[in-house]
């Protein structure tokens, strides 16, 4: 998976647009929001086969099918040949897992090594330091 030539500005635009959207399962949750960022970076939709679920119960069913957030990431990484890297080596645009409210949640590494998370705030995205990431995958 390769990044587009203008991936940095595309990623910034995706994060900016996401920051204005409220959290909603199947609309703007951690999985879809991060996949939207990867789509902006690469032109490839990692969520092409899971989009369309609505509400918390359907989101839980999707994650259960994959064995949770980590299982979903592992499956997508294998399909798209994404290398897992130590979390502290994750770079801008890479996908990470952090713990939020006792659950695994997806985030994307932004400028300054911050992890942006759609699940961290009721409206838009919150941030966590990269050191809180438990796993990471290189995009590009």
Q: Could you please describe the fold and organization of this structure?
A:
With 140 residues, the protein is an alpha+beta fold. It contains four helices and six strands.
Question: What is the gist of this entry?
Answer:
36% of the residues lie in helices and 20% in strands.
Secondary-structure blueprint:
Blueprint: H1 7-18, H2 30-42, H3 55-66, H4 68-80, E1 84-85, E2 95-100, E3 103-109, E4 114-117, E5 126-129, E6 133-137
Antiparallel strand pairs: 1-6, 2-3, 2-6, 3-4, 4-5
Helix pairs in contact: 1-2, 3-4
Morphology: globular
Q: Please state the CA-atom Rg, rounded to the nearest Å.
A: 13 Å
Number of helices: 4
Broad CATH class:
Alpha Beta
CATH architecture: Alpha-Beta Complex
Q: How many structural domains?
A: 1
Query: Structural class, from secondary structure content?
Result: alpha+beta
Distance between the termini: 5 Å
Features:
single chain, 140 residues, alpha+beta, endopeptidase fold (from Nostoc punctiforme), 6-stranded antiparallel sheet, 4 helices
């Amino acid at each position: 998976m390769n990044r587009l030539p203008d991936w940095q500005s595309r990623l910034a635009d995706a994060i900016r647009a996401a920051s204005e959207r409220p959290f909603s399962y199947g609309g703007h949750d951690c999985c879809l929001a991060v996949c939207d960022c990867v789509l902006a970076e690469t032109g490839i939709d990692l969520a092409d086969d899971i989009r369309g679920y609505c509400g918390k119960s359907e989101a839980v069913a999707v994650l259960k099918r994959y064995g949770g957030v980590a299982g979903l990431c592992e499956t997508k990484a294998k399909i798209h040949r994404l290398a897992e890297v130590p979390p502290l080596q994750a770079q801008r645009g890479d996908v990470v897992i952090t713990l939020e409210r006792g659950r695994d949640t997806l985030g994307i590494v932004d400028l300054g090594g911050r992890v942006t998370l759609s699940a961290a705030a009721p409206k838009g995205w919150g941030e966590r330091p990269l050191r809180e990431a438990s796993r990471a995958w290189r995009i590009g």
